[in-house]
Design goal:
Cytochrome Bc1 Complex, Chain D, domain 2; alpha+beta; 35% helix; 7 strands; globular; SH3 type barrels; 3 domains
Length: 250
Amino acid sequence: MLLAGLLLFQHILLPDLPSVEENPYTSAADLEQGKKLYRGRCAGCHGPNGDGGKGANLATPALSHAETDLSLYRTIRYGLPETEMPSHNMTQREIWQMAAYVRTLGQSPSDVVHGNSTNGESIVRGKGACLGCHVLDGQGGLTGPALSDIGRRRSPSYLRTKLMDPNKDVAAEFSLVRLTTKDGRKLTGIRMNEDTWSIQIRDNSARLQSFWKQDLAELAVERKTMMPSYSGQLSDQELNDVVAYLGGRR
């Protein structure tokens, strides 16, 4: 009775939500059309093979926001609040076709990682100084993405690329801000929020600061990150170890 009530409530709030729980469009032709829709609308963020980029890693057997067919449909149709995942105004059949193709991405072989996870953890917490910006199991900074479940959200290949070239595919919510106030203060931080009249940033010490734009002499927002490149800072084996550790964080 409770489940029926919840489903009815969902359909009142989301009137075009399908009345079926399982995907009815999974034929070879549907998958091919779903692939075309995915490549046109999703690959720019999630990667051509779904292994992540600005968007989450979809090449995994279990999707955290889409464990069932209907929840995956809902995520594609309505997006996810407070993330860059947008809504998609397509027909029900097109959404189901895209969902069917997304499911196939998790059937692809996972990246093979040749690394020592224990040593990788030591590097993350020590030599790499990752917790200066990233939170891990409740410890660390707040200026970078959380690492506690990063292996579920990003593929090993994406993690390796990010360690080598951190400025590739920087998400909007981690854009670098450089500003100078009219009284001469210079600050660098991560943009947390911005509107026509004000901007809020989190600075290097993780403090949240807000400024009226009329009080600023200079303001630059760049699709860059405060994260350093580890190219030349870590050996190939150390990079493998870090990727093995982070890739296992689920």
